[in-house]
Amino acid sequence: MPQLTPFYFVNEVTFAFAVILITVYMLSKYILPRFVRLFLARTFISKLFN
């Protein structure tokens, strides 16, 4: 099991950190703003008809 070999710890930590950074960047740049715009559009539309 290579994940228990100390030689691979640095590689695994580096790869995990890179994956987390890429995921956070993709979420903050592309995915979450779409949901915010959708929520705001729905809020404004619902306020127009009240």
TrEMBL record:
It is found in: Mitochondrion inner membrane; Mitochondrion membrane. GO terms for cellular component: mitochondrial inner membrane; proton-transporting ATP synthase complex. GO terms for molecular function: hydrolase activity; proton-transporting ATP synthase activity, rotational mechanism. It comes from the Eukaryota. Keywords: ATP synthesis, CF(0), Hydrogen ion transport, Hydrolase, Ion transport, Membrane, Mitochondrion, Transmembrane, Transmembrane helix, Transport. It is a single-pass membrane protein. InterPro entries: ATP_synth_su8_fun. The chain crosses the membrane at residues 6-27. F-type ATPases have 2 components, CF(1) - the catalytic core - and CF(0) - the membrane proton channel. Mitochondrial membrane ATP synthase (F(1)F(0) ATP synthase or Complex V) produces ATP from ADP in the presence of a proton gradient across the membrane which is generated by electron transport complexes of the respiratory chain. F-type ATPases consist of two structural domains, F(1) - containing the extramembraneous catalytic core and F(0) - containing the membrane proton channel, linked together by a central stalk and a peripheral stalk. During catalysis, ATP synthesis in the catalytic domain of F(1) is coupled via a rotary mechanism of the central stalk subunits to proton translocation. Belongs to the ATPase protein 8 family. This is ATP synthase protein 8.
